[in-house]
Design brief:
With 118 residues, the chain is mostly helical. The chain is built from 3 helices and no strands. Helix 1 crosses helix 2. The model has no long low-confidence stretch (mean pLDDT 81).
Length: 118
């Protein structure tokens, strides 16, 4: 039976020693250009969402989507609790890949359940 690596709790580095001595990697020029393009488009995007929200001829669903979008961006999305029963193998902890697979399966089940109720 393999033993899992011992996890260090707290600060594993000596005082004054960084855990990331090279710092955050620099953004590529492509990323910088993309962010600049999005910043320029931002006012028009906000105007579009607000115009949909206030458009009397828009469908209710479109207006609700616009309102939800604005509220989510301003206040942040509300926490969505997910009930799940998790059964892990008793002889070993889950691997990271298994955790991701499990999370994807739980989210898929939740989407399916929500879609059936809609």
């Amino acid at each position: 039976m393999e033993t899992a690596e011992k996890r260090v709790v707290g600060r594993p580095f000596q005082p004054g020693v960084s855990g990331n001595p090279g710092g955050r990697p620099a953004e590529s020029q492509e990323t910088k250009d993309g962010k600049a393009m999005l910043r320029k488009a931002f006012p028009a995007a906000v105007e579009t969402v607000v115009s949909i929200l206030s458009e009397p001829g828009a469908k209710v669903s479109e207006r609700m989507d616009a309102a939800r979008y604005i509220i989510d961006r301003v206040l942040g999305k509300s926490v969505q609790p997910i009930a799940a029963e998790v059964t892990a193998p008793e002889d070993r902890p889950l691997t990271l890949d298994e955790c991701f697979e499990l999370a994807e399966a739980i989210l898929a089940e939740e989407r399916e359940r929500r879609d059936k109720g809609a």
